[in-house]
Please model this.
Amino acid sequence: MHIEQNVIGTHNVLEAMRKNDVDEIVFTSSSTVYGETDVIPTPEDLGPLEPISLYGSSKLSCESLISAYCHTFDMRSVSFRFANVVGPRSTHGVTYDFVQKLKEDSSKLEILGSTPGTSKSYFYISNCIEGMLFGTRNAEQRIEYFYLGSEDYVNVKQIADIVCEEMGFEEIEYHWIGGENGDKGGWKGDVEVMLLSLEKIKDLGWSPEYDSAESIAKTVRALID
Model:
């Protein structure tokens, strides 16, 4: 699925651009291209890139294809490596899952992994769109990369607490059921800590409006409405 939707799909777009003399592309990449890293917050120029998930490897493959096409066919690109984007139309992810589980059974909450879970940055969709528009307008290089996310992170337990509070539930019992990726992670390829450095795009004049907790809370309110 990742190969077909990401790598082959991106190649098809690039080929269509080449054949029709379209010379600019904006690409939605992911922080997962880095895999696990000890450099937190993580800057855009950190290397080598060693994704630990098939999804992350497919996004990195897309970035490589874009770079090759830009150099070979005089194209320009802006790639955005996102934190976890959340918002009203979420259809998956930890926040969405918690809301759906508590709608079905408000007596307990089953959580993949072990307490307190992974720690990651969460980014509200309106901030994401604003950041992409700003970065695209202000890109300076032929092949440009920007991180987009919030400037902090929350762990899975904190997300559960926010969801319960926004839904009006008190003293919900959390059932941690373990996972496949070490002490905290839920599945193979699940990065334990993710926080992106936003200094590059902030130096150009943009910063996010909401932090991770606010992004989660706004998402919960939208989902329950």
